[in-house]
Specification:
This protein is α/β, with parallel strands linked by helices. Strands 2-1-3-4-5 form a 5-stranded parallel β-sheet, with helices on both faces. Helix 1 packs across helix 2, helix 5 runs parallel beside helix 7 and helix 7 packs parallel to helix 8. About 11% of the residues have low confidence.
Length: 265
């Protein structure tokens, strides 16, 4: 066999490996042709058993969200990629009787890098004339994972650099306030090892000081994060994505408590 053919075979093998790896990653995010494999896999996890179905959520008679319309903007955590597509929107809808708009696409970022970014989906996919009472936005771990630039806090209230995390967040806040006149809250993920995400959480508090937004903080909550290894295995598919049990028993009750506290201010 000639050296040319050997090189072609090796190159073809490398491309195949890269293609399969990319498909597997997309599948784990709930995207692409292998997403159904991810769904079948996570369905078998103990934390996604029938006993953790969201039909188990007990409805409250009266809450600050009863009869309201709440828009949830996010990526895979909001989508529920490791929980059979159940997440915060389904929990709060069942729990409070609010109407929800779920705008969640796995693998997407706050930073405006195309039509699936938070910024563009907020502007293009959600009815500007809708009556929205609250925007709940996920502080995306994807920006931290790909190390998108954090950027700087602007002294202005317009003209933000949406190619940075901070600029994109300011654009989202400003747009929601101007379009629907509604309060905005950002929620964080549970704590994991990421200096980039830690910096994003800290910046969110600076944005709260500037804009008066709410911060639903799981990241810095030591009591919340102090759980056993057994519970963590039940509640989480990995260090970022909860199972249905994770949302139902761990994340959502704490987020509910913090959200109601913010709305009561």
């Amino acid at each position: 066999m000639s050296k040319g053919k050997i090189v072609l075979i090796i190159a073809g093998g490398v491309l195949c490996v890269l293609a399969v790896s990319a498909l597997c990653i997309l599948g784990s995010w709930g995207m692409g042709p292998l997403s159904f494999i991810n769904d079948r896999k996570v369905a078998k996890m103990p934390g996604n058993g029938d006993s953790y179905d969201f039909s188990q959520v007990q409805t409250l008679e009266e809450t600050p969200l009863t009869g309201k319309t709440v828009c949830f903007l996010g990526s895979s955590v909001t989508f529920g990629s490791a929980a059979m597509h159940y997440s915060l929107p389904e929990y709060f809808s069942q729990r409070t009787g609010c109407t929800v708009i779920k705008e969640a696409v796995s693998g997407t970022t706050l930073v405006d890098n195309g039509s699936n970014s938070y910024v563009q989906r907020l502007k293009n996919n959600i009815d500007k004339n809708a009556s929205i009472d609250l925007l709940v936005c996920q502080l995306s771990t994807n920006d931290a994972t790909v190390k998108n630039p954090l950027g700087t806090l602007s002294a202005e209230t317009s003209g933000f650099d949406t190619s940075t995390v901070t600029g994109a967040m300011e654009e989202i806040i400003s747009y929601a306030e101007q379009t629907w006149g509604c309060p905005v809250v950002f929620f964080t993920g549970a704590h994991y090892d990421s200096a980039e995400y830690d910096a994003m959480v800290a910046r969110t508090y600076e944005l709260a000081d500037k804009w008066g937004i709410g911060v639903l903080d799981l990241w810095n909550n030591s009591d919340f994060n102090d759980i056993s290894d057994e519970d963590r295995a039940l509640y989480m598919n990995d260090e970022i994505h909860p199972t249905k049990a994770g949302y139902l028993l761990w994340w959502c009750p704490e987020l509910e408590y913090q959200l109601f506290e913010y709305l009561a201010q």
